[in-house]
TrEMBL record:
Keywords: Membrane, Transmembrane, Transmembrane helix
InterPro entries on file: DUF2243_membrane
Spans traversing the lipid bilayer: 44-62, 74-95, 115-134
Organism for this UniProt entry: Blastococcus brunescens
Designated name of the protein: DUF2243 domain-containing protein
Length: 150
């Protein structure tokens, strides 16, 4: 769920609202109609992929609920969502920004490296914070299970 939602935040906020970059804006600048069309199409495919991550996570969650497994606490679930969002930032930042160079966080700047590094740092913070929150929820779940066994 976090991979998909992190992708949606990236696509909606950075691509559409702030218009700092598009999926292939470093390769095909959106400064012409043809360049904007290519980037809009690539952004659309990106949004389809993030939507599929959210659909898959929703189906998995519904199946777990139908099987009668104990629903985890909010901190358990939210921690995993934040961790997934952080993983999205790291993978997207390393592959698209650094390795492939198809875009940077801010393509409208001459030296975008500091923004790219900030994006990666945000990913690390999301992973660490999300994992700590998840572990807190997991410990609470273990305590509840142990109390029921007694």
């Amino acid at each position: 769920m976090g991979l998909g939602l992190g992708g949606f935040v990236d696509g909606i906020v950075l691509h559409q609202i702030l218009q700092w970059h598009h999926m292939v804006s470093a390769q095909r600048p959106p400064t012409t109609l043809a360049g904007l069309e290519v980037n809009t199409l690539a952004d659309g495919f990106f949004h389809v992929a993030t939507w599929l991550f959210v659909v898959a996570a929703s189906i998995t969650s519904i199946r777990a609920w139908q099987q009668g497994r104990l629903a985890p606490s909010y901190s358990f679930h939210l921690g995993l969502v934040l961790t997934g969002w952080g993983i999205f930032n790291l993978v997207e930042g390393l592959i698209d920004h650094q390795l492939l160079g198809v875009h940077h966080v801010r393509d409208d700047l001459g030296a975008p490296l500091s923004w790219d590094l900030g994006f990666l740092a945000a990913g690390v913070l999301l992973i660490v914070g999300g994992w700590l929150l998840h572990r807190r929820g997991a410990r609470a779940l273990q305590r509840r299970r142990a109390a029921r066994v007694r």
